Amino acid sequence: MFLGFGLMLYSLFTHPIYGGIDFIKSNTPDYAFKIPGNFNWTFVFVWGFIALITFIDPGFYQRSFAGNSLKTVKKGILISIIFWIIFDFMTVFTGIYASAILTGVETSPYLDLADKILSPIAKGFFIVSLMAIVMSTIDSFSFISAITIGKDLPEILYKKSLEGKHVINLTRIGLFITAFISIIISLNFSNAIDIWYMVGSFAVPALLIPMVSLFYGVRFRHPVMLMLIPVLATSIWFLLGMFNKDSFGYPQYILHLDPMYPGLFMSCILFFIFRRR
Questions:
Q1: N or C terminus of the chain with fewer C-beta within 10 Å?
Q2: What is the pLDDT of residues 75-86, one digit of tens each?
Q3: Left, alpha or beta for 20 (phi > 0: left; psi -120 to 50: alpha)?
Q4: pLDDT tens digit string along 147-171?
Q5: What is the pTM of this model?
Q6: Phi and psi at residue 8, to the nearest 5°
Q7: Whole-angstrom Cα distance, residue 226 to residue 219?
Q8: Residue in 57, 68, 64 with CA at minimum distance from that of residue 78
Q9: For residue 15, what pLDDT is reported?
Q10: Dihedral of CA 138/139/140/146: which sign?
Q11: Can you give the residue ranges of every domain in the chain?
């Protein structure tokens, strides 16, 4: 992953025509180097909340509990944050280069840029690095979701521990369900950003506040309602926007607020209503 994008950035920066910061500044849109760019602040903060999915992601806790001590876990999280800052910088900067060089996108900005800049061998290496990103995500989320559906949920619903071959069979069913839902979602979205935006808009209002509250020993009455009502509020806001699109096909939400905000606001209200004193 890192070597692939490092190779791409090195090839771009040393290119006789496209290399250098001056080329980027003179050929990218004006908003590329401005904050918040061509988006409004409410949309930017939505992605900040979506980043908090880390605290409701089972994979985060699975990896944390795999550490042999609290010190090791803290160090691992810090190192991971540093490396992901570096990786995000490389992917974003490559995207800025793509906006400066490409006049149109045929497949994806990264692949079109690789066709234009890299040699055949370097292009093959870069494609492998893209596949590494995709496959690592598929492995992680697919199997964690399969175990959640096949083992964790039945144990919660039936209130008894499952063992042996029964767990394996249920996990296989969970993997099939995960793959089926993933295929349906992928067929209805054109890029991964829209998927993350939609999933985050529903997951954060439902789970963020209840999950963080558990860290501090806060208990609730009607926990299911605490999660379902914010999802309902987000769904209504989302559907109203989808039924009111502008001429370019973008949903126009009430008060120009993204669907996450009414759901998160409702979750905050329910926190005080359902909290056990």
A1: C
A2: 999 999 999 899
A3: left
A4: 888 888 888 887 777 777 788 888 8
A5: 0.78
A6: -65, -45
A7: 11
A8: 64
A9: 86
A10: positive
A11: 1-41+48-115, 119-188, 190-277
Q: Evaluate the CA torsion angle 162, 166, 168, 171 in order and state its sign.
A: negative
Are residues 4 and 129 in contact, defined by beta-carbon separation less than 8 angstroms? yes
Structure tokens given for 208: 């963020």
Closest to 266 (Cα-Cα) out of 240, 235, 221: 235
Tokens of 158: 């039936």
Query: Which residues neighbour 162 within 8 Å (Cβ) at sequence distance 6 or greater?
Result: 151, 154, 155, 170
Residue 14 one-letter amino acid = T
108/38 Cα distance (integer angstroms): 20
Can the peptide bond before residue 210 be classed as cis, meaning omega within 30 degrees of 0?
Answer: no
Q: 190 with 243: CB under 8 angstroms?
A: no
Q: How confident is the model at residue 137 (pLDDT cuts 50, 70, 90)?
A: confident
Q: Are 52 and 208 in contact (CB under 8 A)?
A: yes
> Among 201, 13, 184, 209, which residue's Cα sits nearest to residue 94?
13
Q: Which two tokens stand for residue 228?
A: 């379902």
Q: How many residues does the chain have?
A: 277
